[in-house]
Specification:
The chain is of the alpha+beta class and about 700 residues long. The chain has 3 domains: about 250 residues, Rhopdopsin 7-helix transmembrane proteins; about 160 residues, Galactose-binding domain-like (Jelly Rolls); about 200 residues, Alpha-Beta Plaits (2-Layer Sandwich), CATH 3.30.70. Strands 1, 3, 4, 6, 8, 9 and 11 form a 7-stranded mixed sheet that branches. A 6-stranded mixed sheet has the order 15-16-14-17-18-19, sandwiched between helices. A 4-stranded antiparallel sheet has the order 2-13-7-10, covered by helices on one side. A hairpin with a 4-residue loop joins strand 18 and strand 19. Keywords: Coiled coil, Membrane, Transmembrane, Transmembrane helix. This is Diguanylate cyclase.
């Protein structure tokens, strides 16, 4: 970094911020001009006299001399006819009498508690009427209402065209909706009657805001301009809030980012629920109470958030106490607005405006004491933004006390403040990036060497890890597999049995076990030797494995020449069919065994047990029953399939039978009938 670059960067907060302030003031002025309705284009003295003459007098708005082409938009200020404590439809209203002096109320009006205006209380209801006399020319005209009280309905020539909320006489039935609205109507006969019902039971005061009348295009253009203006403010603030919120999540060491993101977010929310109510237009069913809370909350917590932001930017320990108090203030004010009704925090709103005014003055004082004197670069940006907020807050405070006729400017002022801070933070991050880039360049050689060493080390670690993983995989496979036959070992089988038992108990499905033993295998092993015995075990295991079709079926070597088969979702009949098929497949191997006492080839005996897992039994009990059935098969001559239920082994021990060609006699009649519906006739003879 050169010395010229360093001097430029040191001068940036002064020069660039002055340019940025000038740009923001121009934008601020443009926004204010863009917001104010173009209802007073005072180009000549004649025009000014003409517009001043258009005023509602005793409930009559005489526009017969009005030229819509020269003045497309008028405000309906003046004395509207009022019927207090009555909600009347146009049909229920008395006929208009020009010679009669009707009770009137000046519009716009703000009725405070205890100060009735034309006998209309702040918490009450009434019907307003105005008779508009148009020129003879026919056309499409419109009315633009800001929110009228808490709820209102509008009729034009006896036809209801718009409503916001539900005006009622009973406070319990009132549904407040603080919404602006615009309506268009077709004028033909030169006279239009406008009737408005209003009621207010939720707000501390009743506001009857200005009503604008004009041709249809002027009303539509006015609404569109205001919506675009507020949407731009809302969108800009939300983008800033999202950007700095994500930036704070990325690098937690900058708490100022969180304060700025929060301030931008709540300011965006406030700008979306005032004026044209952009958020309410997006969410038409938003409760009126929630909308009011979202509008008031930023007024109370923005100042503490800004104090916390200033503390983090200036990094001044002298402001630690003020920052802690501000944090508690944010929490307290949020709770206050959340739990109390609108009438209470609305009363505190005017003082909240004063807090913003005093807070801006305090922030400027902090800039001078802790910023300018200590030559802190962030002081210039915050001082410029605080001046803008100070002017906006002062304008809104005068407006709140009806001493100044201007739109609300706090949102625009805060937008400018936040944009100035965003520019400063961008410069600050850029400055930090340049410093970090310089350090990185100076240490590039060392960094590259370390990276090279790390790559070598990572490669060695990767190779060692791969070798260790493969070794562990082989060890795991060896620990769960029988080395001779390739089937699962006993440990693996018991783990899978427990898992399937719990699954089938949840699903209420059966589980079957087949315990098998090679007949007279000891004699085979003794005569032919262990190598031939091992080959025989492998062939038998392969024949059993080929018979099992499903992935969930499990074959395991349970002992020396014993195998056990687990068949999930299989009942007794199905297990018996599988066992008989295995028996035939093993016999079909034709492994010669001249030393067998029942056959001249290798044969297998089977014991079958099945049950539906439940709390009344255990997997160990099912294994014992299969083993008992296997024992019964050996007792009944071997090379057969014997099954057992929960009470009996079939055939019972006292049944005298003889083995003949590997087949067993039928079970006793009482047990045979028990299985009549479970097993096909072709299998009953194998039940031993």
């Amino acid at each position: 970094m050169t010395g010229k670059q360093t001097r430029w960067q040191q001068q940036f907060p002064i020069k660039s911020m002055l340019i940025l302030i000038s740009v923001m003031l121009v934008i601020f002025t443009a926004l204010v001009g863009f917001w104010i309705p173009e209802n007073k284009p005072l180009t000549t003295a004649a025009t000014a006299t003409e517009i001043d003459s258009f005023r509602v007098e005793k409930g009559v708005f005489d526009l017969r001399q009005w030229n819509p082409e020269m003045n497309p938009l008028l405000s309906m200020n003046g004395d509207w006819e009022i019927f207090t404590d009555q909600l009347l439809t146009p049909e229920e209203l008395p006929a208009f009498q020009p010679s009669h002096e009707p009770p009137t109320i000046p519009i716009p009006a703000e009725i405070m508690p205890g100060k009735p205006l034309s006998e209309l209380d702040a918490n009450g209801y009434a019907t307003l009427r105005v008779r508009v006399l148009f020129p003879e020319n026919e056309g499409i005209y419109g009315l633009k209402f800001a929110y009228f009280a808490s709820a209102y309905r509008v009729w034009v020539n006896g036809k209801e065209l718009v409503s916001a909320g539900t005006p009622v006489t009973n406070p319990a039935e009132c549904k407040p909706r603080y919404l602006p609205s615009e309506l268009l109507f077709h004028h033909v006969d030169g006279e239009v009657e406008v009737v408005v019902q209003v009621s207010n039971f939720h707000h501390r005061r009743m506001r009857l805001r200005p009503v604008f009348l004009g041709d249809g295009q002027a009303i539509t253009r006015l609404t569109q301009r205001q919506i675009i203006n507020e949407s731009l403010i809302f969108g800009s603030l939300m983008v800033i809030a999202l950007y700095y919120g994500v930036l704070y999540l990325i690098q937690r060491r900058e708490p100022a980012l969180l304060s700025l993101a929060t301030a931008a977010f709540i300011t965006a929310i406030r700008s979306g629920v005032i004026g044209e109510r952009v958020l309410v237009r997006l969410w038409p069913q938003m409760p009126g109470e929630l909308m009011m809370k979202l509008g008031y909350l930023p007024v109370f917590i923005l100042l503490p958030l800004l104090v916390m932001y200033v503390r983090d930017i200036l990094d001044s320990s002298e402001m630690d106490r003020a920052a802690r108090l501000s944090l508690w203030a944010v929490l307290s004010f949020t709770l206050f607005v959340a739990v109390v009704p609108v009438s209470i925090y609305d009363a505190a709103f005017q003082y909240g405006q004063g807090l913003i005014l005093l807070g801006s003055i305090y922030l400027i004082y902090v800039m001078v004491v802790y910023g300018f004197r200590k030559k802190n670069q962030g002081a210039y940006a915050m001082a410029a933004g605080s001046v803008v907020v100070l002017l906006a807050a002062g304008s809104d405070m005068l407006r709140e006390f009806t001493l100044w006729n201007a739109p609300e400017l706090v949102s625009e002022g805060l937008l400018i403040f936040i944009m100035i801070q965003a520019g400063f933070l961008a410069w600050r991050f850029n400055h930090a990036f340049l410093r970090a880039n310089t350090l990185a360049t100076e240490n590039a050689a060392m960094y590259e060497e370390i990276q090279h060493m790390n790559r070598d080390l990572e490669e060695k670690i990767r190779q060692r890890t791969l070798e260790l993983t493969n070794t562990n995989r082989k060890l795991m496979l060896m620990s769960r597999t029988d080395a001779l036959t390739g089937a699962d070992n006993r440990r693996s089988f018991e783990e899978k049995l427990q898992k399937e038992w719990h699954r089938l108990k949840r699903e209420n499905q059966p589980l079957a076990l087949i315990m098998s033993d090679i007949d007279f295998f000891k004699e085979y092993n003794d005569q032919f030797g262990h190598p031939e015995g091992d080959a025989c075990l492998r062939q038998v295991a392969a024949a059993i494995g080929k018979t099992l079709r499903r992935e969930t079926d499990v074959l395991a070597r349970y002992g020396g020449e014993e195998f056990i088969i687990m068949l999930p979702n299989t009942d007794m009949a199905g297990a018996c069919r599988v066992a008989e098929k295995i028996r035939k497949n093993v016999e079909a191997l034709q492994i010669k065994h001249p030393y067998s006492q029942i056959h001249r080839v290798i044969t297998v005996s089977f014991g079958v047990a099945a049950a539906t897992p439940s709390r009344a039994t255990t997997p160990e009990a099912l294994v014992r029953r299969a083993d008992q059935a296997l024992y019964a098969a050996k007792q009944q001559g071997r090379n057969c399939v014997v099954l057992t239920d929960e009470q009996h082994t079939i055939p019972p021990k006292d049944l005298q039978s003889e083995a003949k060609n590997g087949l067993q006699k039928e079970p006793p009649k009482n047990l045979q009938n028990k299985l009549e519906n479970d097993l096909p006739n072709g299998f009953r003879k194998y039940l031993g």
